[in-house]
Design goal:
There is one protein chain. Helix 9 links the parallel strand 7 and strand 8. This protein has 2 domains: 200 residues, Rossmann fold (3-Layer(aba) Sandwich); 102 residues, Rossmann fold (3-Layer(aba) Sandwich). The protein has a 6-stranded mixed beta sheet with strand order 1-2-10-7-8-9, with helices on both faces. The chain is an alpha/beta fold. The protein starts with a strand and ends in a 15-residue tail after the last helix.
Length: 321
């Protein structure tokens, strides 16, 4: 679904087209459907361990999709168990087993020795990387570029937020030859560029990748970013999350990228979903914005998330947010 966002006085651009993966793939799953489907198909019937934060869209999507593939999902979660967490409640209702670890231990998640230790103690058959990010995920994301181009003809530029870089690399590999793809990082990870370059080569790079570094700390948006998200919602009904899509779209429309050559083109921004991050910042939204707007915003997050499922199948009522 391609939506035109018409801006007002808060942007130098008059409009921008947005590919709504948050709606196209049934709610909060978004790009995770593309990243996980091939991975989970190869792991069907096994006990699979993966990693994420308490409001992780990856864990949410993994729990929902694992049920479809008869996978016993195990989550290693950063930090203490939070009270009243809607995301983990839904994941639990889908059968996800949760193992909370300290932040120090969580930083060891890429250590093969630590993974082997967890596999043994938790009885897992396999490990899926944090975010589901590997070459299978990259290849799974290649069709996103075709979805963009079918919706609007060849897009002059495709823009997307970048976490691990798997979705970005997949879009680069699936783009038309020499089609610019702009990736805007949300994580200050010095290894992102090398990882993305390796994935692009392995997946058969076709587009022209332009990867821009992050300018703020991951999952710590400024108050003006939260206000931007609420303003976009109030004017257009488009729901952006505060971790990935909100901060990046703000940079494209109002920030340091607003007057660059890349931003001046008729680019298509890929909304990757990730709406679960909104629940972790409910109180901050309430402090920044009008409570009535915030209430409507969170209600819409909940409504979209209720539609989460595969092939149009809604969530069971018992698993609704």
């Amino acid at each position: 679904m391609l939506t035109e966002l018409r801006t007002s006085s808060w942007s130098t651009r008059r409009s921008i087209n947005i590919l709504r993966l948050d709606l196209l793939t049934q709610g909060a799953i978004g790009n995770k459907w593309y990243k996980l489907r091939d991975n989970l198909a190869t792991l069907a019937g096994q006990r699979v361990l993966t990693f994420g934060g308490a409001y992780s869209n990856h864990l949410y999507a993994f729990a929902v999709m694992a049920e479809q593939y008869r996978i016993e999902a195990i989550a290693v979660i950063r930090g203490e168990q939070p009270g009243g967490n809607r995301v983990l409640r839904v994941a639990s209702r889908f059968g996800m087993q949760m193992h909370f670890v300290s932040r120090a231990d969580y930083r060891r998640r890429h250590d093969p020795g630590y993974q082997t230790e967890l596999v043994g103690s938790l009885g897992a058959d396999a490990v899926l990387p944090e975010g589901g990010s590997n070459l299978a995920a990259v290849l799974g994301c290649k069709p996103i570029a075709a979805v963009v181009n079918r919706a609007c003809g060849r897009a002059p530029t495709i823009a997307v937020s970048v976490g691990t870089g798997a979705t970005f690399a997949g879009i680069v590999a699936g783009a038309e030859v020499d089609q610019p793809v702009l990736g805007v990082c949300v994580v200050n990870d010095p290894e992102t560029s090398a990882r993305v370059a390796q994935w692009c080569r392995a997946a058969g790079e076709r587009g022209l990748p332009l990867l821009l570094p992050a300018i703020s700390r991951y999952a710590q948006p400024a108050d003006n970013t939260l206000d931007f998200i609420l303003q976009v919602f109030a004017e257009s009904g488009i729901v952006l999350d505060p971790v990935y899509n909100g901060p990046v779209l703000e940079r494209l429309l109002c920030g340091d990228l607003a007057d660059t050559a890349a931003a001046a083109d008729d680019l298509v921004f890929v909304h990757t979903g990730g709406l679960t991050g909104a629940w972790g910042m409910r109180e901050r939204f309430m402090r920044v914005g009008d409570r009535r707007v915030v209430a409507r915003y969170l209600a819409q997050v909940r409504a979209i998330s209720r539609r989460t499922g595969l092939c149009g199948n809604p969530l069971p009522k018992t698993a609704a947010l």
